[in-house]
Amino acid sequence: MKAVIPIYDICSLTQKREDLLISRFAPYLKSHRNLHLPHKHSFYHLVYFTKGNGSQTIDFQQVPVKSNQIYFMIPGQVHNWAFKGDVDGYIINFSVPLFQSFLLKANYLEELPFFRGIVNEAVIDIPADLQVKLTLLFEELIAETEQPKPFELDMVRAIMLQIFVSIARLGQHADSATVSSYNYTLLRGFQKLIEKNYATLKLPKDYAGLLYITPNHLNALCNDVLGISAGEVIRNRIALEAKRLLINNDLSISEIAGQLNFADNSYFTKFFKKQAGLTPEEFRKTTNSHE
């Protein structure tokens, strides 16, 4: 099936290796001008801007681009750039298995707040006291990959972990410190279950049962920590997937409704319009007009 939006793997962006790409951003951007159009990645992706202006769109949310900003993306998210003027910094693309084979805790990255696929948590302004350290760490990564040495990949992963932990420590992402460890674990469990089951399980009571808690407990937890109900968390994820599917013009509205297990087109259209403010057809036309 032909997709309107391309899906890139690391091999399609570099001839060097299939699991890792580390580069300064300006030459990377020069080599991949087509990435200003909407696209998906099959890998984890992050960029630290040391110079930049304009905007980018991640999963249909537009955010400004500026100096000393870093953003993180997980596989499957939709992305495009609209830069203004000169842009530079550092980019890392890495495969899903890169850390699974390195760390005993295979799902370590999923515990980091900026790798949850939530745009508001994944675009981060770096404070002045961390900017120099971060730049030095990225320069270390560049040096390691430009001049291969023994244990090169292990050193690269160790430096990347320093970057991840340094950013995870920032106060704006310390939600796990303000929520009890039990409730934090429950919330992460809920989010992971949604990711696996959003097409088939659409009610809070379904997830509450899998978590061995009451629907009221789950709803109170989501309201306290996220500011929205458990039902809204589920509906937001279904709507996001609908948007990702709608940008493929080879999929009919009926096929998309079927993939997301809606009983019929009218129910899907009513759901989507309530969540997105547009009908599926209107959203598709609006998205296509921006390409």
UniProtKB/TrEMBL annotation:
<dbReference type="InterPro" id="IPR020449">
    <property type="entry name" value="Tscrpt_reg_AraC-type_HTH"/>
</dbReference>
<keyword id="KW-0805">Transcription regulation</keyword>
<keyword id="KW-0804">Transcription</keyword>
<dbReference type="InterPro" id="IPR003313">
    <property type="entry name" value="AraC-bd"/>
</dbReference>
<dbReference type="InterPro" id="IPR018060">
    <property type="entry name" value="HTH_AraC"/>
</dbReference>
<dbReference type="InterPro" id="IPR037923">
    <property type="entry name" value="HTH-like"/>
</dbReference>
<protein>
    <submittedName>
        <fullName>AraC family transcriptional regulator</fullName>
    </submittedName>
</protein>
<dbReference type="InterPro" id="IPR009057">
    <property type="entry name" value="Homeodomain-like_sf"/>
</dbReference>
<dbReference type="InterPro" id="IPR014710">
    <property type="entry name" value="RmlC-like_jellyroll"/>
</dbReference>
<dbReference type="Pfam" id="PF02311">
    <property type="entry name" value="AraC_binding"/>
</dbReference>
<feature type="domain" description="HTH araC/xylS-type">
    <location>
        <begin position="188"/>
        <end position="286"/>
    </location>
</feature>
<dbReference type="Pfam" id="PF12833">
    <property type="entry name" value="HTH_18"/>
</dbReference>
<keyword id="KW-0238">DNA-binding</keyword>
